[in-house]
Amino acid sequence: MYKCCIFDLDGTLVNSIYALKQSVDQTLQHFGLGPVSIEDTKRFVGDGYKRLIERSLKAYGDPELTHYEEALTVYNEVFKECCLYRVEAYEGIPELLSFLKEQGIFCTVLSNKPHQRTLDNVSHVFAPGTFDRVYGERESQGIRKKPAPDGVNALIRELGLEKSQCLYLGDTNTDMETGQNAQVDTAGVLWGFRGREELEGFHPRLLAAHPMDVKEFIKDVNHIE
């Protein structure tokens, strides 16, 4: 029986691709580079902002990463202003979260986005109290970024749960690897930034085309009428 759902943020709970592209575009523009395409943005995200900037620079005119360190600083300043640009919940997510709360299932967020920006996104889109825990990147506290299992393991400890009681949901290979590394069940969501083929390769417990697929899956596993 599942007692907790651990959600990735970008591409899983919220469509933030326009905010991410806007932030990368303004960063690259500072060096006379870019803009980055939507499709490349979807491919470059998922492993934290440092890898996002590294991949963007390499693909858009700075293969030697000459501007890398300065670009990180620029991006962090730009992202403070752009992180909520056109960010919204995916269709069906509010209904899924309401169902989980009704069933007494913990709802948590675990993102590689900087922690404060994660909090900003969640508070901008969702009502207070929607989630029991919300965590972004916390490497300064000794919790490695996904796909390391640290964040998942910390949540499980905090909530006093067993691994078998948790379902990790995400839209990228990083998310599937996170679930595998933490030894919890995974659900790959197909409405986000990556495709079926990438997620299928990790053999998740569920491949969901819509949030209501997750609801029906949990109803089945938890024997809910």
Folded structure, characterized:
By secondary structure, this protein is of the alpha/beta class. It has ten helices and eight strands. It folds into two domains: 4-15 and 87-221, Rossmann fold (3-Layer(aba) Sandwich); 17-82. It has helices at 17-29, 38-44, 49-59, 68-82, 93-102, 115-125, 150-159, 173-182, 196-200, 211-221, and strands spanning 4-7, 14-15, 88-89, 106-114, 133-137, 166-170, 185-189, 206-208. Strands 5-4-1-6-7-8 form a six-stranded parallel sheet, sandwiched between helices. A two-stranded antiparallel sheet has the order 2-3. Helix 9 (196-200) links the parallel strand 7 and strand 8 (206-208). Helix 3 packs across helix 4 (68-82). The longest helix has 15 residues, at 68-82. The chain starts with a strand and ends with a helix. The model has no long low-confidence stretch (mean pLDDT 97). It holds the Pfam family HAD_2. This is HAD family hydrolase. InterPro entries: HAD-like_hydrolase_sf, HAD-like_sf, HAD_2, HAD_sf, PGP-like_dom2.
